[in-house]
Amino acid sequence: MKKFKILSALLPFILLSGTVPVRAEDDTVILRVCNWEEYVDEGGWDEEETIELESGDIYGADPLYEEFEAWYYENYGQKVKVEYSCFGTNEELYNMLTLGDVYDLVVPSEYMFMKLLEEDMLVPYSADFFDEEKKDNYYIRNVSPFIRDTFENNEIDGHHWNEYAAGYMWGVTGILYNSDSVSKEDASTWKILDNPDYFRQITVKDNVRDTYFAALGAIKSDKLLSEGFRNDPAYRDKLAEEMNDVSPETIEKSLDYLQRVRDNVYSFETDSGKADMVTGKVLANYQWSGDAVYAMDQAEEEDDVCLSFAVPDECTNLWFDAMVMLKKGISEDPRKQAAAEAYVNFMSRPDNAVRNMYYIGYTSSISGGPDGDQVFEYMDYVYGAEEDEEDVVDYDVSYFFGERDGEPASITAPAEQVDRQLFAQYPTEEVMNRSSLMFYFDAKANADINRMWVGVRCYNIKNVPVLCWVIIALVIIAGVFLAIRKKKNER
Amino acid sequence: MKMTISRKSLGIPYGIFLFLFVVAPLIVIVYYAFTNGSGHFTFENLTGFFRDPNTTGTLVYSLVLAFVTTCICLGIAYPVAYVLAMGKLKFKSVLMMLFIMPMWINFTLRITALKEILTLIEGNLAFYPFLNSVVGMTYDFLPFMILPIYTTLSKLDLSLLEAAQDLGADRKQTFMRVILPLSMPGVISGISMVFLPAMTNYVVLDMLYNSTYIMGSLIGSYFSAYNWHGGSMISLILLALICIFTLLSSGKEEETRGGSIL
After folding, report:
1. Segments making up each domain of chain A, as ranges
2. Do domains A14-170+320-379 and A173-317+428-444 have the same CATH topology?
3. What CATH superfamily is the domain B53-261?
4. pLDDT digits (tens, 9 = 90+) for A468-483
5. What's the average model confidence in pLDDT over B138-142?
6. Of the ranges A222-226, B9-13, B123-127, which is most confident?
7. How far apart are CA A355 and CA A347, in angstroms?
8. What are the sequence ranges of the domains in chain B?
9. ipTM of this complex prediction, to 2 decimal places
10. How many inter-chain contacts (A to B, CB under 8 Å) are there?
11. Whole-prediction pTM
12. Smallest Cβ distance to B126: which of A200, A454, A460?
């Protein structure tokens, strides 16, 4: 017993030792990075996977975060060890952070880093990081003008995003659909989710925020599509306002709408949506652009289903995943902060951005610049039309890549790409103009919306059929009866 | 002297384990279940659970799902275990192996395979979500029902059966009066190994496209809404259910043990 007491006295220390920052004995800097699952190039490519660009071949040998260690030592003479771990959802990351896990650099989505920023958990990037003259500052030198503008113009609590966050990947949400069975017109509205023509043929993301966004788009559809609203000078601001509406009446309406969606769709899915589209199990899927690209690639290999991607006319949810540094991890250690910023820069080197894009299918925030043109070349390499191809279009991507040789950037692509991977990876400017961010919900709205969501997903006790109650009653009576008889027998 | 010390210290690893992974988390759960966001003591989580038609509905749905699963498992497992234990089969061990083998295959792989088979049969899985879930759960939990029943039946003292026959009991009476009561401990431990997991194993539902929440997924949804308090309370309610069930079944077990002594 005494031993037990000693042990329990020691216990707090045992538990604490897990949370105290681990300091290596030598001068190695430990960098704890926490990223989404499968969200970085893990290397180990086949020979034939080599991407052959004009400016040179790109090939992923080792995980990028391991290559960073060697690169950092070579350039800065400082040993660094990356401890790489993963999270599944933004909420999971937030729970990990609030329950005491310590990381130096994490990659949450925009609403989550805004929440972290509001809760004063982030460290701003140093002035040095924004110096475009320094040759290793790949991020600031190569980031897309679109990302740069967005991050400079959005602010929370008087802090601009770009002071704290460096863009990693970005995208929009939309409908991935089987173009043999679903018309583009049907897929171009959020109302497809409760369209009875596709009864039990659509899967929807199992996620409160995404479904709530779709519900907003559907219940406000008429308003969002009206000429008056469209032509309003303050259209983007008004749109953002509508898509962040968390008033009780709207939540009530979305409950009603999502219950109809639930009764109409195949199911809510966490991860099976892509595979089910490729195998043809379902005809449409509410999907993130990057996963849609992945599914369309897969479908091309399988060769018997033809998938396309559409962005609803009402509005789309623009999202960004960004690299942010955490106060608790960095803990005012300049060596650590330098390593974290170098990590961001290393990931932002155009060739590394291409490696990530190839590996995970999402769109990097990097467009290229003084340090290489690989991102644009890669897009042309993957989506550009063959020289002898006939049905081609000029696809304008100047909002993202800016100007090239004095002209707005564009590529010549097969016409079908306008509805497919190219469109999902780099949506048109017209789509970007009707995109909106969805901010994090405050505590009350979060509770309300989650209660709404539980109302969508749970079996309401009022719906239990009478027959079921009768059976339950019979089971209980039988149980009691058996117990009594047993007692009697014993006597 | 040395012997006693070493024997005591054998229990230390288990003591540590027990404290770290059973007692400590339980304390945390109880703390969260009876406090609100600002750390004050409250019963709100408990009353809230029983006042909300959605959460009570989920409880009923999970109970019914688990009950149906358990009944089907029992209906399949008892005859199988009986034949395996009592019958004079040539390839008994091979048969036994066939029933246990699925347990060696990864769970998600099995359910994925089942998903494909069900799709072949039904075409569109979305029309029968409840049925699919029951099939999935039964497939998943059947070995847990067969094994304990088989164990008790195979340990049965055959002389008791001979005695029953000597005393003039026909086959049906022997079964109802002797074999069934004596195999009750196995049945009960089988039920407890199937019923409670079936209430919470939402992965099966997710993978078989049943979008309705059961207790397990409900807890998950509370946690992803940062509501530790509500989620902990649901865990506690489940725990209470387990306790009630265990108390009831342990009472029964004593009865049967008493019977076997007679």
Report:
1. 14-170+320-379, 173-317+428-444, 465-491
2. yes
3. MetI-like (1.10.3720.10)
4. 889 889 988 988 888 8
5. 92
6. A222-226
7. 9
8. 53-261
9. 0.84
10. 103
11. 0.87
12. A200
Average pLDDT, chain A: 90
Which chain B residues touch A455 with a CB distance below 8 Å? Answer: 54
Whether A461 sits inside 8 A of B53 (CB atoms) is: yes
By CB neighbour count within 10 A (0-12 exposed, 13-18 middle, 19+ buried), where does A40 fall? buried
A450 to B124: CB separation less than 8 angstroms, yes or no = no
Q: What is the pLDDT of residue A209?
A: 93
Q: Could you give the C-alpha distances from A148 to A145, A152, A318, A399, in angstroms and in order?
A: 5, 6, 15, 11
Nearest of B248, B250, B227, B237 to residue B62 by alpha carbon: B237
Name the burial class of residue A81, with classes exposed (0-12), middle (13-18) and buried (19+) by CB atoms within 10 angstroms of its CB.
middle
Between the alpha carbon of residue A77 and those of residues A64, A138, A464, the distances in Å are: 19, 19, 68
Distance from CA of B148 to the nearest CA of A (A): 22
Residues A61-89 have pLDDT tens digits of 999 999 999 999 999 999 999 999 999 99
Residue B97 vs residue B258, higher pLDDT: B97
pLDDT of A183 over the 70 cut: yes
> Which residues contact residue A339 at a Cβ distance below 8 angstroms, ignoring those fewer than 6 apart?
A29, A31, A72, A78, A80
Token readout for A61 is 């040998």
B92-109: average pLDDT: 84
Tokens standing for A53?
């660009």
Bridge partners for A81 per DSSP = A30
Q: Which CATH superfamily is domain A173-317+428-444 in?
A: Periplasmic binding protein-like II (3.40.190.10)
CATH number of A14-170+320-379: 3.40.190.10
Q: Is A402 helix (H, G, I), strand (E, B) or coil?
A: coil
* Inter-residue contact A202 to A192 (CB < 8 Å): yes
CB contact at 8 A, B62 and B197 = no
Q: How many residues does chain B have?
A: 262
Question: Rounded to whole angstroms, how far apart are CA atoms A141 and A139?
Answer: 5
Q: Under an 8 Å CB criterion, which residues of A touch B?
A: 3-4, 7-8, 11, 89, 91-92, 94-95, 98, 200, 206, 208, 262, 265-270, 272, 281, 446-447, 450, 453-455, 457-464, 468, 472, 475, 486, 490
Asked if A168 and A322 count as a contact pair (C-beta separation under 8 A), the reply is yes
| Secondary element (H or E) of residue A52 | strand A51-53
pLDDT band at B192 (very low <50, low <70, confident <90, very high): confident
